[in-house]
Amino acid sequence: MPQDAVLSVQDVDKTFTLHLQDSHQLPVLRGMTFDVPRGACVVLGGESGAGKSTVIKMVFGSYGADSGRILLSHQDAVMDLVTAQPRQVLAARRETVGYVSQFLRAVPRVPALDVVAEPLIERGVNRAAARERAGELLARLSIPERLWKLPPATFSGGEQQRVNIARGFIIERPLLLLDEPTASLDGRNRGVVIDLIRESLGHGTGMLAIFHDADVRDAVADLTVDVQSFTPVREEVLA
Ligand SMILES: Nc1ncnc2c1ncn2[C@@H]1O[C@H](COP(=O)(O)OP(=O)(O)OP(=O)(O)O)[C@@H](O)[C@H]1O
Ligand SMILES: [Mg+2]
């Protein structure tokens, strides 16, 4: 992979097998190829259903790829996520790849402050210092302090999304995946997210992102990859 890349996706194919529809095959990607340089934001473009989230989930190791290579620079070595063992994928997630999904996976009974602080605590930072940093991020994202002690399950969509963003940005990993992180935020909070993204990029984090809002995309994108240019040809889809 190129020296300056944190991620190199090379010739990846992905077909879903629809088990509820007689094992019908749905080819989504053919020959997907692109790199994410360190400190750069690569934005995935393309219509709804093109396969943008699928790419992000393959890089996070949630979906397998059928062929090709997904090379990740992980702890001074190169890991191929297409062939990695589950325990290697978990190590990559701990140290190298962060993910802000579109929706918060809220754990019952855990207060928002601890949901955000957890990645720092897992890194060995003491609880008080981790909570202090979590509070700073929640305040920056305009989550009122009275909510910090409550579990996010009952928060509004936009509040949950901001908790999710705070959790995703509390530690800086070499690669951050963002799947429509600003979809239900107001303009002011979108501005905060743009600032957080720029700060992380400035520290060398590479990003692979999907943005619903053109203003956010235009503010942070260094490169755009059109996922539809890797859509399989029609004859293959019908075959
Ligand atoms: N787990 C799955 N099983 C079967 N098909 C799937 C699965 N995940 C995605 N797909 C299909 O793959 C295609 C691409 O889906 P994906 O969610 O990646 O699109 P997207 O570009 O992120 O769309 P959107 O902009 O609407 O979020 C769609 O046709 C979808 O139905
Ligand atoms: Mg999607």
Overview of the structural elements:
Residues 7-237 form the ABC transporter domain. Belongs to the ABC transporter superfamily. One of its GO terms (molecular function) is ATP binding. Keywords: ATP-binding, Lyase, Nucleotide-binding. This is Phosphonate C-P lyase system protein PhnL. By secondary structure, this protein is an alpha/beta fold. It has a single domain (5-107, 158-230), classed as Rossmann fold, CATH 3.40.50. Helices cover 35% and strands 26% of the residues. It is built from eight helices and nine strands. The chain has helices at 52-59, 86-95, 112-122, 127-140, 157-169, 187-202, 214-220, 234-238, and strands at 5-18, 24-37, 41-45, 67-74, 77-80, 97-100, 175-179, 206-210, 223-226. The strands form two sheets. The protein has a five-stranded parallel β-sheet, with helices on both faces. Helix 3 (112-122) packs across helix 4 (127-140) and helix 3 (112-122) runs parallel beside helix 5 (157-169). The longest helix has 16 residues, at 187-202. The two termini are 34 Å apart. The model has no long low-confidence stretch (mean pLDDT 94). Adenosine-5'-triphosphate binds next to strand 1, strand 2 and helix 1.
